[in-house]
Amino acid sequence: MIVAMQDEAKEELIQQVIEKMVEIGFDVHRTTGATSTILAGVGKPGHFDVAEFQVLEGVHQAYRISSPYKLAGRGFRPEGTTITFPNGVVVGGENVTIMAGPCSVESPEQILLSAQQVKAAGGQFLRGGAFKPRSSPYSFQGMGLEGLKLLREVADETGLLVITEVMEISQIELMLPYIDCFQVGARNMQNFNLLRELGYVRKPVLLKRGIAATIEEVLLSAEYILSGGNYDLMLCERGIRTFETYTRNTMDISAIPVLKKLTHLPVLGDPSHGVGKREFVAPMALASVAAGADGLLMEMHPNPDKALSDGAQSLFPEQLEKLVAQLRQIAPIVGRSVA
Fold this sequence. Notes:
- The chain has 339 residues and is an alpha/beta fold.
- The protein is built from 11 helices and 15 strands.
């Protein structure tokens, strides 16, 4: 159930409504905007009549939620969610956020140069894997804790934020001091135990769509994180598996406007994994922003031909710089901007 309070409703009235919702068995999630408060009741309450809430003092509107995702639905935050990071970077606002860097941290020299090149191109986040999920157990698996330390060190030196992938619950506590945003990869989109634990963490999360996941399944996975009280959540379209084999995946551009309609959460695009071929990354990045993406997550390597993972889909530094320049021209057409 969603209860929208009247503009400027007094705190005393809001608390009375919350108490009544709790009495009948709801877990209440509250979001307060500039002028009004939305209360979302989730769980398995006993019998109740929504009309009882519609007539309560201070209530503007009350209605049952028909969709299975209660907190991810746009009704919970009709104005949309924005996530503000400690250095002032905002995801989900007017600006299109650029997150870029290599697939994995390979050495101190490589990640420092990567950070400098991302910063020079206009990026706000440095991406790079410290723990790498690979299809083959014999492939490079990342540098682990040492990679996390390197990410933090070079990000602080260049003024960037750090986003990197968490693969299992045991890594959460280890990663907290070194990162600004957790990334949940496509393989873990339905690792519900991991998602539930990330809901208890007060640090932003980027959740990638699974390789064969429907949009509803993405939103239900998001619900696991939101239900724990962590509302600083972003979604990411990164391509899905279809019968087409020319590209690594099929970049579902249509998912971006659909998600923007269904949810209040910021939506990003990952064209690198979406197509898996360097030459198609820029067109898909431009299309993502035109479709309404709040940001882009892309792979860039100082020397892609020598990369230990995903070199074929990694941009050269000059390609990233050129792409960001093009994005600055495209974004204003759809009412956005690129820093």
